């Protein structure tokens, strides 16, 4: 018998190699080019470890380090305390207005930098309207400034990540597990923390890690609400923006410390998760129950209350956008002055924002499905490496990434990309992990035997993937794509380095308006961005909800 | 120790009627089996008793007290799940200990009871494995151990042995029955295996299409099936049509006169004969007066261990199947050989000729 | 032709001046607007293949600090500059910025309106004064350097500044300073005169106060990018911004013109009534690194 | 139509040896059954053949061509999964049509073939249901339909009938066998049900602990089990110890002399008797020369449909089980009554006395 030994590279091996190449070019190369800076002396441009010595010996940095951990950890905890119950309630009980809640939770994420924090000041600052209201009735409230304010804002700003990841996972838990727990004598509460919670722990921890990493990287909130409470992010921002110019060595060094913290957290999470991989056949899915009486009222109050409170700053922004202005000053009364002023050039910026984000998200959706498969189903060193690399974009501050991109792809031999191309690529690589994380947790819950069945029926790997795996991970893909989209359309720090006059985006416009103190303009621009994004999000949820009934 | 009483229970999934008008009384400590084909509503009934979904109407009482309003976790009803439902994040030991911890049993006591029950299900050396390292049958045994270790008032088992091999199944069957007797746990057992049902149960309840067909002792079910469905389901699966002409009645195949056994109605009737009641002899043969004889042509003889299965076709095209101790004179016959089936008249059963037709006289 | 202009100028200046330039010269202008720090980082990142032609409206020290990024250019019309404006070959002054206090009297709780740097050091204003960070904001650095120059010696100035810093609430962006005062979050802000003026003109509850010891009247720079893709266009842009009509428009927007033959806006106090410390930009630039280090140490002591 | 040849196959999960040195030859078109207890490696072997994981060593050939290097999707090996693996997002119809679409079969043809195969598995009216609306057994039938509809070269079935009721199981068993013969698909069938294995197979391969114990025809397995494990697994589960004294040998229970049947070795030996080979009579009784007699005390009689199971304890404490047609004289005996078991000497089997001890003579 002759065996034709024709070499046929296995499909997933090819995919793995392609992914590695893309990551090497778009991720590792630009970052390395910038990271070298932390080992360079700003003046002499010679090699040095002095930057690190400086960071670890000076109180200024050490305090920042402690503060960062403090608000990062508590902000994450707060996000979990809101996100997990919200996910559980919406996944297990009939809640009136569920789509509405999910949409609002997503919209919370559409808070352009700075403006949200300013909105909190307008509410809870020394002269904020809520503060004043309580003062009039004789209660003195603490102001928003300081660590507690930052933690409050982080909590309300980042809980949607925990909520979305957890909800997706909860919807895929095999119902029999919960039944069995209850049958063995668990009250619903015990059942929740003894069985359900451990089962969805991978998803929760992924959401929490995203919160933690983002809280560490967020500079707008501590910058505006800190009042002397400095975190590494504000230190890095200050170092970066200091008009000295020259090589941003300290900014990069501090960024690396931030990256190291996040990296540690991620590695810890991976360690814990390694032992916990649960799959279900998805044929015995949980059902929603109806609550009654005060429980029902309580749960509804909680769900709607959380998203409404989290939406407050956004509402304040919308409200502000309709205030009559003269220059930067609100003159009292309502008017469309702010909208009149943005009408001229906002449409271009909106078009740009959508164009770049959508282009990036299409890429992200396709690539994250493939990457997730490689990570979850293939047990090779390469898939481990990819999984690890998928954390990196979370960790690298946008500025660092953008400088790397510009030096790598605009100058020199590959200087073929215009600003638009660069923006799409940088959105793609920076937001890819959102897609991958979400899709990965979705995929982990699907039994491998389903794909095996497809392969066994003659479907080549790609086809089995498209026809069986992809439809089953659609919920994860949708959530991942949404999160990528929302975070991409709000991207500021790297856009600011790359954009040119034809490619200005909404967040840049909003940021510039804030810089000028033009809050009316910023609010109007934010409102427009919010509206456009909101429509998209709502549409996606409607679509996903309809699918809900069609399958799963 | 508790009696269970179910009355007028009804359960719909959307439009699908999964259970319609279920009435059941289970004495304290007895072993009650739900037997029926796939999709007949057995799992649904168990899950309703366990409290995982609520019925559309009807009531369930344990020891005379209605339990509808009790949440599932307070019903003290143990359950072995058809899809195992082993907690994937806990080791075998912790899975089994789960319910005991829930009941605040002391840890030394837990260790001992878990060890004992794992021995019973022959998983003593697997205590520290995680569920994904177990085969399907091993997982099912963990589920069984987890449910019996808590010694609940009522134990529900959803085909707990279906994935086990015959030997282990028979062993565990006896073991289950022993444990159940010892503890006196009222047990509701779901199976689609009639042999299992007949061997283990105090009462067998045959279901079909969400309706109870008959609920009585195994012997009664076997000897006096209430309708054609029950008869066929517990193994009487030769059905022969009966020709009627005024007061006289005769089997169409072979023509044996059965008028004496059929009161004078004119409704269509089928005659059922168990495969093990049929004897097979090669060639033509006449029957003694207490028996009937049916000539047929051999189609297939298959060997299933200690018995042979003989399939043959009568001249009117009906199929007959006999199960008997292997007889070389029959096993060696070529396909198509003439054979004669005989059966004692006392072993014939008559039913109205439709799927769930009543037994006559 | 297209001139690419990197700028930190406020939007109102851009809106007023850029169309005039386009009209007058027939060039198209592409504006890239960001904070001056971001613009400099962007310029260094692009230094191998520069994309911009002109850096417009940043603190001159920032240009002096990065000589490699810029090209010296002597603008047409430099001869009309007011005295003391031209300080470096690398850049051309564009406007003069004047440091001032913005005060919201209703938030002072009856305390007197401070009218001098020394008053800001008074402990009664603890946590009532808004200021940007001198290590991050160019204008805050100028204010810092001004105080150091306004008293007898640097040591004296440093004492005074340290006391002031104890009263400061620092914010990351200089744009936020007048905003906070206007909104009543804080009572006093140290800021740019023209930024404060926009709130006064808008009808905000604020007033402008010039410190009696003297303040900085510092030039704001424009510079030609080294290796600019359209150097000629860049030069034309710089030239035009020095023209009389451009400077008149600048004056209308509330900024101080740099030409001796164009007058400030009427709403502002005439420059000769504002006490100047004779701000020494060169000294401020030369000592910047040291001073910022000291500033950071001071912050740790007093905040 | 394809032959399958497996040689020296070895598969480890970490340290766990799941398969060790498997050698199998399956002629084209035959029905080959892997029979063994839970955890013996049956599923592992099937999955290795299907290409879902690679062996540690050894080779698999189909029609003489090694298939190791072929990816799973090109092996043309159909599989029915133990956990069903029904695609949850596709309707029953689309699940079944999946493989056909993959093979670019015309849509009219697909519709017809899907309809036919759904009739075969008795799911004709369920074509438009989604998997989560099906019971466990119904899901399993979908998996079966999905695999046979593509008529693969080799069909692998992992306990496809384990969740079905006895009646359906027997029906489908015959149906499966019919389809398999018709299409001539070489089939490897995994089961833990010895009856199923013996009834359906051309060859039965008994596995235990990842090792093949015996692979031969059903009759041979039944009549000449190669070792004690095989004997007990296919139902010969009465093991009696044999006392040896020099050249003479006798059963300890009852003392029947069996020297003539044991060549003169001194190794420990056990005697196996099938339950159906034992006859039970009340009281004391002597045996004819061709038989042995073992007195015992009745422990339990249970009724399993057409047969009774009799358990009794001999005076030396060994347990005996007999399966026979119900005999009122026995069924009515009270617990503890003396009975005598007899068995023809020709039905006795002797094994070395350890778990997988060889058969002697
Ligand atoms: N969630 C559901 N929605 C609609 N129909 C359902 C649902 N669950 C079960 N059914 C239907 O209800 C009927 C009874 O199902 P049930 O699971 O109780 O069967 P069963 O007797 O346990 O069968 P098996 O022996 O195959 O497990 C079946 O026809 C099934 O298709
Ligand atoms: N992923 C795994 N890791 C470690 N051990 C495993 C793994 N999968 C199976 N095993 C072990 O390998 C042995 C063979 O498993 P396999 O699933 O082939 O058994 P099986 O014969 O199909 O059993 P069953 O009839 O219960 O399905 C078992 O002892 C099982 O515990
Ligand atoms: Mg069921
Ligand atoms: Mg198996």
Write structural notes for this entry.
The complex is a heterotetramer, with 1 copy of chain A (552 residues), 2 copies of chain B (361 residues) and 1 copy of chain C (303 residues). Chain A is mainly alpha-helical and 552 residues long. Chain A folds into 2 domains: 22-57 and 322-552, MetI-like fold, CATH 1.10.3720; 61-314, MetI-like fold, CATH 1.10.3720.10. Chain A is 74% helix and 2% strand. Chain A has 24 helices and 2 strands. In chain A, helix 3 runs parallel beside helix 7 and helix 8 (175-183) packs across helix 9 (188-217). Chain A starts with 10 loop residues before the first helix and ends with a helix. Chain B is built from 9 helices and 19 strands. Chain B folds into 2 domains: 4-225, Rossmann fold, CATH 3.40.50.300; 236-352, OB fold (Dihydrolipoamide Acetyltransferase, E2P) (Beta Barrel), CATH 2.40.50.140. Helices cover 24% and strands 33% of the residues of chain B. Chain C has helices at 11-25, 36-45, 60-65, 117-120, 138-150, 154-167, 176-183, 193-202, 231-242, 244-252, 281-286, 288-302; strands at residues 2-7, 28-33, 54-59, 70-71, 91-103, 129-132, 168-171, 188-192, 207-209, 217-225, 256-257. In chain C, strands 1, 2, 3, 4, 5, 6, 7, 8, 9, 10 and 11 form an 11-stranded mixed sheet that branches. In chain C, helix 5 (138-150) packs across helix 6 (154-167). Chain C starts with a strand and ends with a helix. Chains in contact: A-B, A-C, A-D, B-D. Chains A and C meet through helix 11, helix 18 and helix 23 of A and strand 2, helix 2, helix 3, strand 7 and helix 7 of C. Bound molecules: adenosine-5'-triphosphate (2 copies) and magnesium ion (2 copies). Chains B, D: GO terms for molecular function: ATP binding. Chains B, D: It holds the Pfam family TOBE_2.
Low-confidence stretches of chain C: none
β-strand amount of chain B: 25-35%
Query: How do the SSEs of chain B run, as a string of H and E?
Result: EEEHEEEHHHEHEHEEHHEEEEEEEHEE
Cofactors and ligands present?
adenosine-5'-triphosphate, magnesium ion
Of all chain pairs, the largest interface belongs to: A-C, 55 and 65 residues
Give the H and E element order of chain C. Answer: EHEHEHEEHEHHEHEHEEHHEHH
CATH third-tier fold name of the largest domain in chain B:
Rossmann fold
* Low-pLDDT residue spans of chain B: none
């Amino acid at each position: 018998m002759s065996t034709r030994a024709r070499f046929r590279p296995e499909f997933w091996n090819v995919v793995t190699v392609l992914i590695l190449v893309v990551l090497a070019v778009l991720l590792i190369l630009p970052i390395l080019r910038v990271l070298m800076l932390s080992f360079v002396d700003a003046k002499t441009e010679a090699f040095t470890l002095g930057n690190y010595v400086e960071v670890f010996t000076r109180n200024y940095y050490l305090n920042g380090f402690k503060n960062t951990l403090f608000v990062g950890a508590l902000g994450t905890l707060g996000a979990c305390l809101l996100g997990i119950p919200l996910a559980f309630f919406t996944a297990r009980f009939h809640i009136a207005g569920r789509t509405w809640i999910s949409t609002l939770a997503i919209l919370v994420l559409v808070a352009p930098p700075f403006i949200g924090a300013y909105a909190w000041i307008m509410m809870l600052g020394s002269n904020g309207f809520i503060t004043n209201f309580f003062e009039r009735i004789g209660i003195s409230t603490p102001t928003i400034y300081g660590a507690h304010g930052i933690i409050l804002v982080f909590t309300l700003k980042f809980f949607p990540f925990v909520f979305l990841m957890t909800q997706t996972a909860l919807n895929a838990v095999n119902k029999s597990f919960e039944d069995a727990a209850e049958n063995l004598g668990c009250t619903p509460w015990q059942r929740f923390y003894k069985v359900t919670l451990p089962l969805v722990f991978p998803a929760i921890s992924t959401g929490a890690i995203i919160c933690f990493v983002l809280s560490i990287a967020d500079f707008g909130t501590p910058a505006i609400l800190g009042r002397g409470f400095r975190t590494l992010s504000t230190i890095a921002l200050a170092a970066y923006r200091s008009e000295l110019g020259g090589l941003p060595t300290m900014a990069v060094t501090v960024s690396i410390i931030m990256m190291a913290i996040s990296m540690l957290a991620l590695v810890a999470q991976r360690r814990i998760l390694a032992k916990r991989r649960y799959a279900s056949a998805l044929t015995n899915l949980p059902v929603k129950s109806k609550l009654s009486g005060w429980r029902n009222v309580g749960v509804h109050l909680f769900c709607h209350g959380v998203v409404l409170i989290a939406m407050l700053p956004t509402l304040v922004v919308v409200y502000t956008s309709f205030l009559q202005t003269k220059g930067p000053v609100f003159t009292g009364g309502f008017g469309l002055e702010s909208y009149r002023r943005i009408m001229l050039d906002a449409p271009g910026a909106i078009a740009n924002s959508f164009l770049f984000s959508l282009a990036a998200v299409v890429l992200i959706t396709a690539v994250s499905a493939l990457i997730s498969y490689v990570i979850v189903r293939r047990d090779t060193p390469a898939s481990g490496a990819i999984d690890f690399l998928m954390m990196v974009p979370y960790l690298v501050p946008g500025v660092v990434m953008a400088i790397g991109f510009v030096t790598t792809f605009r100058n020199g031999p590959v200087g073929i990309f215009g600003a638009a191309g660069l923006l799409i690529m940088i959105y793609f690589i920076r937001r890819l992990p959102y897609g991958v994380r979400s899709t990965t947790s979705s995929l982990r819950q699907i039994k491998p035997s389903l794909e095996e069945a497809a392969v066994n029926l003659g479907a080549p790997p790609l086809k089995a993937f498209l026809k069986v795996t992809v439809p089953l991970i659609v919920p994860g893909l949708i959530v991942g794509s949404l999160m990528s989209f929302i975070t991409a359309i709000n991207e500021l720090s790297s856009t600011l380095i790359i954009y040119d006059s034809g490619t200005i985006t909404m967040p840049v416009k909003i940021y510039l308006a804030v810089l000028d103190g033009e809050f009316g303009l910023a609010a109007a621009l934010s409102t427009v961005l919010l509206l456009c994004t909101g429509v998209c999000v709502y549409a996606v949820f409607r679509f996903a909800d309809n699918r809900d009934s069609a399958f799963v | 120790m508790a009696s269970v009483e179910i009355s007028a229970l009804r359960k719909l999934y959307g439009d699908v009627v999964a259970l319609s008008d279920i009435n059941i009384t289970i004495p304290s400590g007895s072993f009650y089996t739900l037997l029926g084909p796939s999709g007949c509503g057995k799992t649904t009934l168990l899950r309703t008793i366990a409290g995982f979904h609520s019925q559309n109407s009807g009531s369930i009482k344990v020891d005379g007290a209605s339990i509808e309003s009790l949440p599932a976790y307070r019903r003290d009803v143990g359950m072995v799940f058809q899809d195992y439902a082993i907690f994937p994040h806990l080791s075998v030991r912790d899975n089994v200990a789960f319910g005991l911890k829930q009941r605040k049993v002391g840890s030394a006591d837990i260790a001992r009871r878990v060890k004992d029950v794992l021995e019973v299900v022959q998983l003593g050396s697997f205590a520290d494995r995680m569920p994904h390292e177990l085969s399907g049958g091993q997982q099912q045994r963990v589920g069984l151990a987890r449910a019996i270790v808590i010694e609940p008032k009522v134990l529900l088992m959803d085909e707990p042995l279906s994935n086990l091999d015959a030997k282990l199944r028979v062993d565990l069957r006896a073991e289950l029955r022993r444990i159940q007797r010892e503890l006196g746990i009222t047990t509701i057992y779901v199976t689609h295996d009639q042999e299992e049902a007949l061997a283990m149960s105090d009462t067998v309840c045959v279901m079909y299409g969400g309706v109870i067909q008959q609920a009585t002792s195994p012997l009664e079910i076997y000897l006096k099936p209430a309708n054609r469905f029950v008869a066929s389901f517990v193994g009487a699966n030769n059905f022969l049509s009966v020709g009627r002409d005024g007061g006289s009645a005769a089997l169409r195949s072979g023509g044996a006169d059965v008028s004496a056994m059929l009161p004078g109605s004119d409704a269509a009737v089928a005659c059922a004969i168990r495969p093990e009641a049929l004897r097979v002899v090669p060639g033509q043969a006449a029957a003694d007066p207490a028996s009937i004889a049916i000539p047929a042509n051999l189609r297939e003889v298959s060997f299933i261990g200690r018995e042979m299965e003989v399939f043959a076709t009568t001249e009117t095209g009906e199929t007959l199947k006999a199960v008997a101790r292997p007889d070389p004179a029959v096993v060696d016959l070529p396909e198509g050989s003439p054979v004669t089936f005989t059966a004692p008249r006392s072993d014939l059963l008559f039913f109205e000729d439709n799927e769930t037709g009543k037994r006559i006289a | 032709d297209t001139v690419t202009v990197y700028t930190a100028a406020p939007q109102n200046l851009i809106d007023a001046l850029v169309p005039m330039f386009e009209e007058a010269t027939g060039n198209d202008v592409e504006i890239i607007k960001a904070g001056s720090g971001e613009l400099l980082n962007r310029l260094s990142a692009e230094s191998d293949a520069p994309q911009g032609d002109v850096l417009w409206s940043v603190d001159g020290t920032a240009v002096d600090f990065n000589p490699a990024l810029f090209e010296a250019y002597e603008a047409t019309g430099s001869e009309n500059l007011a005295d003391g404006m031209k300080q470096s070959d690398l850049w051309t002054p564009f406007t003069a910025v004047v440091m001032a206090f913005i005060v919201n009297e209703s938030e002072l709780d009856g305390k007197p309106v401070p009218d001098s740097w020394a008053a800001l050091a008074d402990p009664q204003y603890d946590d009532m004064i808004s200021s940007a960070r001198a290590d991050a904001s160019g204008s805050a650095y100028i204010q810092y350097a001004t105080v150091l120059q306004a008293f007898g010696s640097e040591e004296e100035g440093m004492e005074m500044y340290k006391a002031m810093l104890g009263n400061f609430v620092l914010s990351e962006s200089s744009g936020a300073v007048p905003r906070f005062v206007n909104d009543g979050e804080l009572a006093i802000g140290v800021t740019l005169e023209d930024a404060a003026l926009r709130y006064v003109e808008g009808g905000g509850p604020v007033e402008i106060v010039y410190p009696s010891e003297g303040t900085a009247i510092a030039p704001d720079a424009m510079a030609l990018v080294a290796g600019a893709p359209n150097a000629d266009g860049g030069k034309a842009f710089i030239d035009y911004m020095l023209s009389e009509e451009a400077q008149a428009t600048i004056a209308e927007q509330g900024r101080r013109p740099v030409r001796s033959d164009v007058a400030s806006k009427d709403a502002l106090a005439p420059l000769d009534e504002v006490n100047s410390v004779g701000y020494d930009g060169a000294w401020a630039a030369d000592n910047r690194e040291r001073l910022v280090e000291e500033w950071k140490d001071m912050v740790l002591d007093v905040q």
